[in-house]
Specification:
Layout: H1 2-55, E1 59-60, H2 67-80, E2 86-90, E3 97-101, E4 107-112, H3 113-118, H4 121-136, H5 139-165, H6 169-174, H7 179-217, H8 221-233, H9 258-262, H10 269-278
Parallel strand pairs: 2-4
Antiparallel strand pairs: 1-2, 3-4
Helix pairs in contact: 1-5, 1-7, 2-4, 4-7, 4-8, 5-7, 8-10
């Protein structure tokens, strides 16, 4: 059911992009938008992991630098029947983690130095299991595609809105009475709709990764306890993450801000913990 819902939402996001491009430039614009979507997804597929790791100045770490982390990872990849991903670290006191990569054979898990110092071994195991579940489910690719399309919709909507607002008198006269107003409404509502669809995809994948990660770890308590600690720590340590990549992290790196929480890419931590306790 989760896969069906995710697929439906991705199709809806793509159609929304084509629709708004069509409103901007007619049927020819819709065709161009569809081709542009394919090109964007191709670029996201091949280069998103390098871009994201570079954004946060993540450094690759070896077994000698983090023996416990590698021990946990080795144990879990065998349980999950996955190839060994590369491990990266971001020197930041804000405890968090994310996974990236186009498929399980080209995956990476990145943790902050803050999460290593905050969590116990059992809790850290729950977090790594959660990230491996994202890799197993190929969520790293799904969410990158969703973010790419949503970002393109917002860009085109801005062009459409400003173009309508500053259209010359001749252009305005050629448009029918309510047409300009309709264009403005579409340009305002389309980005909101795109954001809501992206949030729905992200939240669905988080619940799924929590459940599968708990199975990999054979324990729901480790992840549940880790989520509680990470939620509290986020109140005092800000990662400085970009909104475009917030969906990647195990807990919302933008938490603490009212609007960030209202339009969060993550479901409430309390609900995630509740669902874990019911497994």
């Amino acid at each position: 059911m989760n896969y069906f819902k995710t697929g439906f939402l991705l199709v809806a996001l793509t159609l929304l992009f084509v629709f708004i491009a069509g409103a901007f430039a007619g049927s020819q614009g819709a065709v161009i938008a569809f081709i542009f979507t394919l090109l964007m997804n191709f670029a996201a597929y091949w280069f998103s992991d390098k871009i994201i790791l570079g954004m946060y100045a993540a450094k690759k770490i070896s077994r000698d630098q983090a023996p416990q982390l590698f021990e946990i990872l080795f144990e879990l990849v065998n349980e999950a029947n996955l190839p060994m991903p590369q491990l990266y670290i971001v020197e930041n006191a804000a405890p968090n983690a994310f996974a990236t990569g186009r498929d399980p054979r080209h995956a990476a898990i990145c943790v902050t130095s803050g999460i290593l110092s905050l969590l116990t071994r059992e809790e850290l195991k729950g977090v790594i299991a959660h990230e491996l579940a994202h890799i197993k489910n190929r969520d790293t690719l799904i969410m990158t595609v969703a973010a790419t399309i949503a970002g393109a919709i917002m860009m085109i909507a801005n062009m459409l809105r400003w173009g309508a607002m500053f259209a010359g008198p001749g252009t305005r006269d050629r448009q029918r009475g309510g047409n300009l107003l309709g264009v403005l409404i579409v340009s305002i509502l389309a980005p909101v709709a795109a954001m809501l669809v992206q949030l729905a995809i992200s939240r669905t994948r988080e619940y799924s990764a929590d459940a599968k990660g708990a199975k990999f770890a054979h324990n729901t308590k480790g992840l549940a306890s880790a989520l509680g600690k990470l939620r509290e720590a986020a109140k005092f340590h800000r990662l400085g993450a970009s909104p475009q990549t917030a969906h990647l992290f195990i807990v919302n790196p933008l938490s603490g801000d009212f609007l960030a929480n209202l339009f969060s890419t993550h479901p409430p931590v309390e609900e995630r913990i509740k669902r874990l306790s019911q497994l």
